[in-house]
Amino acid sequence: MGNFAACCRGFWCKAKNPDVRVSLPAVCFVWQIAMIILFGLFVRYDEESDAHWSEHKHENNITSDIENDFYYRYPSFQDVHVMIFVGFGFLMTFLKRYSFGGVGFNFLIAAFGLQWALLMQGWFHSLDPADGQIKIGIENIINADFCVAGCLIAYGALLGKVSPVQLMVLTLFGITLFAVEEYIILHVLHVRDAGGSMVIHTFGAYYGLTISWILYRPKLNQSKNLSGSVYHSDVFAMIGTLFLWMFWPSFNSAIADHGDGQHRAAINTYLALAASVITTFAISSLSAKRGKLDMVHIQNATLAGGVAMGTAAEFMITTYGSLIVGFCCGIISTFGYLVITPFMEKYMKIQDTCGIHNLHAMPGVFGAVVGAITAATASESVYGHEGLVNTFDFKGEYAERTPAMQGGFQAAGLCVALAFGIVGGAIVGFILRLPFWGDPSDDNCFDDEVYWEVPEDEESLPPILEYNSHMVGKNTDMMSNFTVEQS
Amino acid sequence: MGNFAACCRGFWCKAKNPDVRVSLPAVCFVWQIAMIILFGLFVRYDEESDAHWSEHKHENNITSDIENDFYYRYPSFQDVHVMIFVGFGFLMTFLKRYSFGGVGFNFLIAAFGLQWALLMQGWFHSLDPADGQIKIGIENIINADFCVAGCLIAYGALLGKVSPVQLMVLTLFGITLFAVEEYIILHVLHVRDAGGSMVIHTFGAYYGLTISWILYRPKLNQSKNLSGSVYHSDVFAMIGTLFLWMFWPSFNSAIADHGDGQHRAAINTYLALAASVITTFAISSLSAKRGKLDMVHIQNATLAGGVAMGTAAEFMITTYGSLIVGFCCGIISTFGYLVITPFMEKYMKIQDTCGIHNLHAMPGVFGAVVGAITAATASESVYGHEGLVNTFDFKGEYAERTPAMQGGFQAAGLCVALAFGIVGGAIVGFILRLPFWGDPSDDNCFDDEVYWEVPEDEESLPPILEYNSHMVGKNTDMMSNFTVEQS
Amino acid sequence: MGNFAACCRGFWCKAKNPDVRVSLPAVCFVWQIAMIILFGLFVRYDEESDAHWSEHKHENNITSDIENDFYYRYPSFQDVHVMIFVGFGFLMTFLKRYSFGGVGFNFLIAAFGLQWALLMQGWFHSLDPADGQIKIGIENIINADFCVAGCLIAYGALLGKVSPVQLMVLTLFGITLFAVEEYIILHVLHVRDAGGSMVIHTFGAYYGLTISWILYRPKLNQSKNLSGSVYHSDVFAMIGTLFLWMFWPSFNSAIADHGDGQHRAAINTYLALAASVITTFAISSLSAKRGKLDMVHIQNATLAGGVAMGTAAEFMITTYGSLIVGFCCGIISTFGYLVITPFMEKYMKIQDTCGIHNLHAMPGVFGAVVGAITAATASESVYGHEGLVNTFDFKGEYAERTPAMQGGFQAAGLCVALAFGIVGGAIVGFILRLPFWGDPSDDNCFDDEVYWEVPEDEESLPPILEYNSHMVGKNTDMMSNFTVEQS
């Protein structure tokens, strides 16, 4: 028994080997070839992107090409695309020596995930019953980007501590879970969540936090010297922050209803974000000696208003309602960075590199609750009859649903998102603990040297010192492994 | 009497205390709560962003959602939004140790200002007489961004020398003045200024320059070691430059007339900007030993063509007219950096950190003059009857106005902008001289250490030296204060 | 005879003088004034950007301003604009001490080239036979940006080795050649190439490579210490990469047909780019010790899928077809960086700083072939009758053309692009070898000090050493000149 335990421990704790020369290309090739085959079997253009569009126009009395959904949604799509690749990517460049990994792995898993998302979401939402094939158009590629966002949020908790192969596994399962969760929330429960407070942010954040909890690294402080920022890496991160902040109105309005739906979603998000900025600066200044602002807060908590408007942005939440949401979220999120993240790391063994609990989890839950309340209190006097039906899609089998019932379903949707995030994260976390994924050792975290050819900087003289500290770290690690295996 | 003078001097000149731990959060909270209350009382969705849009469509025989103003203006709005936050923000990161302040305070005051702008501009332009409430839509949030731009321009003159609390006061008054000035120019005088050569640039620049003149710091050269750039900070600033440059056609066309108005404004601005680049490179090279180019010119003067097309972009200024405007402005603006800024600093006691006099003031005035001339020479043969009426909005009570009269009113508009900038700046400047705003001492300017937690750079070894020089600076300052108080 | 040869060699090899104080301003001024005159003579607004638009609407029964082409294409135009200035510009900031030159000269020649492109393309494509004038609108300014892209690609091969004056000459001839080549391919041969695999990428790349071959610098390794990147310059380059990658769907769809054409082009490009990323990471990891990724590959080869979809994006290439194209191009392009670029430098005397052969030449040719095959295999069953006619523009004098014939013409188009690139490049290369263009000496390449006022970096201490190595380099150079002249 003791032998077995020792053996197990040896299996789980053996010296880390972050060589991904076989595993990364293997996963990439196998996967990409599988994608090509599956797309060949299942994915076709929809009627608006197919060359038969001109015939479709005649049949449906569409008078102008401008009625093609492309022109309603393409500008928003491009903004969302920027958020996914530059926004999330550069937000994660803040670490002094993990900028390549931050922006580079974000690039890899987003490009990887969006293909799988087109398939998974397609099977659930865009399957043409006539021929059993997925018909894709502009809305599908926006949704694929949204789906990827969930996994990129999860990456935020794990930044610097996982290998690219682990990230691909995380993404593969994350997209799958997302598509199922989204189907249950949006279609089974008929919940409205255009900007994804529940579907994207709550799910993604709890998925990542649970994985981070399972991959807890007790000796992570061996990498402490690389876990902070330098001056210019903080400026790089501001590029990510600002593109996320500016384009969040497009995120929340991208797949909202044509016309007033998109229009209102953009305005509400714009207002909530502005209020978040003000309260973030306030709390950040209030919490520090001499009122000095902390870049971590400015880079992250300013965005919380956008997260929290994900559900309610398309509702008639009113302009001051949006400001109140942003006001609260800036406070909650900054407070999270000051108090909750250190607490979680110390007492709950959750290491959350980017603080996604503060930026996505709490504001996401808050936004879901706001959405449920806003939906429950909707009325014909505010929306007009037609407006109410359109906004909540009270049509077909849902024609009898009342706003109050809708509020209840919205709340149920939040529970589904939480459950999928936590249970899914637990399962995937255990898979990621398998010892062959090539993750770095505790003293090698937050370091691009592990997975990247890093140029020698003439400008930084003390690489010798740094290198030595690494060697020392490695020796210690080997010795600790030796001890474990002896026991 | 001598006592009183000494007391006064003591009051105005007492040792600076840049601690904003109480004042910054207090202003943020009070202000944000006031905004929520005022929005609750006054701001509602307009007919295109309200859920009653579907009913509005029926009533007005609008056949398609694509006719919602959102689809005419949202892409331009997002471009303008990028200019405000990334464009202005990163343009101000060029200082070697004030990048956090450049991009961060820009973020704060833009998010702060746009809320106040929605209210102030709403009261003047979008008040619904039926219920006394402001109805907002996409055009209002573009205008709010425009309004904020005026204050960000003013910030350019003061970069590195003021506290965030001062910036918020500057913004609060700036937005207020802007809204009044804009009302007088656009509504009372019925002047056309879609891209704001007068309303935004001339006003903003003279507002900032006047404040800078009143806040003159005779001992600013104590911060001389931080008043320049480093290699990478200049590259960061180019991000700002390029996003401003690329999206300026959207800026000048964002609120122009639907159809040919927006189309022509974009093309004219595109051309003027291209010509500015060429003459900026020419003058920059001509002025230096061995023809070496100066990044300051490239970062700023290349944009002058966009500023100068703010008024005339939507007119039939012709394509070569646009090129001529850009040609002249590139020369004027670069010349300003070479000659006028040093002159103003030395002889007129105006310290203009970003050179807004060259980028906004001179090209703005130039653009207003160009606009007046273009308007005065407009004719039905060039515009067509309907085109002339639409372009200059010669409708209703203005149906009798001739192009020549319009030219005169355009010139009058410039005077209003100048007057508001200078007089408003003088008043606000004196308010900002009050000694409790937390501005830095003369030897502490251009330094993020004052208001930000700055990460320690391993890469830069000599912080000890730097720190010492600060200490020396501080001692000198205290001594000089001591002397003043004794007298 | 020996005397003449020595004299010639002396003429061609005399000590380089990179002083552009006279030549750069002279070219800029002469050229910009010429542009103003030519625009005055030839360029007018088209019917959609002219103030007569409202009359045009009545005459053509256009019911809404939204039918103005501006609203179909402006969002794509802005994305293309970002690719040209930020995308290409920042992609070229990767060198440790040539970021100013990378982004700055890119800015100069793009602004310079687009004016000339409007004229040259206008004469060939947009000449109004009624009055002999060029009528420009949104599509023209997109095409001008496209045209400039060809020259910026060529700049990639020469980065760090040429003077700004040489770049302007290169651009002047490049735009001219481009316009003729494009006219032959698109109009004479009636070939489809919306995203320019042939017209832009193949032409631009071979134009640049041929020039680089003629300007071969045998002693370029004297600048070896500056030919690499540093940590932060690689992150800056990722800004360029990502904006190119994200907006490539806009590039390929910007001038595609309204409706399904633009819609499909965007989707196909989106998919091909995603697949490129996966195979680029795979090959990059596979090729290095311990699977370490190389930033050069990630920055460049990930984009190859977009290049290769330039021709076929608007066709019914199918979604899996797009993935296959991206799959192949990621492999080809990364392989190029690993094997072909070093081979070309060593054995073919082609020094290709940015590896444009891998990013533009090979994927461009590949894309042209893919386009020819896709066109040749098109059928009415896939496109529908009307769809086939619209997609390939089988109208008027081309009404009888079959898909198979179209495939042949597409292949002919590729040959034209190659011929123009290589022959044009050879001619321009010899012009650029003239000794008065101010290019840097072999030991001065990749160094911003030559053409820019570079701020002193406090952070980098060893400029003294660097300066010395320059001096040594210069001495050697002078001595070798001396030897040559003596012989």
Automatic annotation (TrEMBL), chains A, B, C:
Look up keyword Magnesium and say if it applies: no
Q: Where in the cell is it found?
A: Cell membrane
**Which superkingdom is the protein from?**
Eukaryota
Q: Which Gene3D superfamilies match?
A: Ammonium transporter AmtB like domains (1.10.3430.10)
Annotated membrane topology: Multi-pass membrane protein
Molecular function per GO: ammonium channel activity
Looking up Pfam families in the UniProt record yields: Ammonium_transp
GO cellular component terms attached to this protein's record? plasma membrane
Record's keyword terms, sorted: Ammonia transport, Cell membrane, Glycoprotein, Membrane, Transmembrane, Transmembrane helix, Transport
Q: What are the BP-aspect GO terms? A: ammonium homeostasis
PANTHER family (alphabetical): AMMONIUM TRANSPORTER, AMMONIUM TRANSPORTER RH TYPE C
Entry's family note: Belongs to the ammonium transporter (TC 2.A.49) family. Rh subfamily.
The annotated subunit structure for this chain is: Homotrimer.
What is the protein named? Ammonium transporter Rh type C-like
- Origin organism is Sinocyclocheilus rhinocerous
Gene name of this polypeptide: LOC107733936
